[in-house]
Write a structure and sequence with these properties.
About 50% of the residues lie in helices and about 15% in strands. It is an alpha+beta fold.
Amino acid sequence: MGAKHLNDRLLFGLKVKQLRARKNLSFAELSARTGISVSYLNEIEKGKKYPKKDKVQSLAMALEVSLEHLTSDDYDEHIAPVAELLQSNFLNELPLDLFGIELSKVVEIIASAPARVGAFISALLEMSRNYALREENFYFSALRSYLELHNNYFEDIEQAVLDFEGANDLPAGRPLPEAVLRKLLEDKYGYTIEEQGIEEYPELNNLRGVFLPKNKRLLLSKHLTPIQRSFQYGKELAFESMKMKERAYTSSLLKTKSFEEVLNHSRAIYFSVALHMPQSAVEKDMQAFFQNETWQPEAFVDIMRKYEATPEMFYHRLTNILPRYFGIKKLFFLRFVHDSSRDHFEIDRELHLNHRHQPHGNGLAEHYCRRWVALSILHDLAKKQQNGQTPDLMVDAQLSSYLANQDQYLVLTLARPDYPAPKRNVSVSIGMLLNDNLKKEIRFLDDPAIESRMVHTTCERCTIMDCEVRAAPPIIINKRNKLNNIEAKLDELIGE
């Protein structure tokens, strides 16, 4: 049954429940008046059943309302916000089933709450309209929640990669030759791969790849490096070998049609990363790296280069392996994009395990704290580029102490140019909360070569008044202080 019919059942059931409650009728009493069994009435109120016309008429008579009123779209102030929520398609688009949640249960909880909860729901809808939130925002938020719930480790995908390697006699060593994966796509799955196929379509120049399902053509950008091509091949092999039919046909998600598409895209990325960076090998490499007595940036980069991985692939794999095999479960991953022409920073990818760490994305157009190594390294990269230098990669580490609660993180950051975009650079950072487990796992934490710095969220909210890299005045703090002064004076006057 379609979403509209489901909404009809849910809202009709809520109206029946509300009218029954107003009449102080038990299920047994309403059953006696209507001839409808108690179990069927229960299913009606939960939105599982929509009764036939004769039963609707019996319900209207028993509840002492007209048939038109019972079946109309006219709802009182308690149910109206729920109706608006359902009609907005907000709940229907969320992957509740992925978390084992029934839509009817959510609606039942909302509708049985006092009117103030209805007002809260209305406020959420109004905020979503004001901030122009789109369906994909909800999809990606739900995906992040799903990944965080599982500590970003999925045994079924790890096993699928091992099964794929065994079934196709892939070489044990890494890096994995791109030609091997290309041949599998062509010979086993009937792909036609065009390494410069994107160039025929100027409108698609910003894309790395497009898959045309009718004739299984994979069009790639000529700007891709060998590992980028190999990564795209890995994603296609994931879709084929794991039989994920609902998928996007572009290398990055543009306009999403469903949550299943977003989830499958994420699973394909995971598969390709795991294929190129085997779990056991990366675990052994990181174990050895963490045992170093001093911070060795080149050794860190060497692990990535061993697999010819991109920084994004490397950090993706770390977020899989560190929680699972090192017990480092309180961590975040952030990717910042820096437009050096206007000195603008934006978070375009993030993941927070255990809880939401600082910093994190915000849609308030505030200025992220420039003290974080994720931003300072991008400034350094832009400065080198302005001086005629062209570094392909920069690496840095920082012990970042968050001013508001003194949480301290070891942050490892890589920065690189955002090829082929001009005047854009990106940094990827993994931040690990400093606790007893981290001290046990990482021996170089006390290395004085790692800068310790006090940081905050955004300049607008920061109380570090003598900050040498402040990008905006602390307007939120100033407003808060002004309000506190008003309240203090009022308390003084009223106390007199």
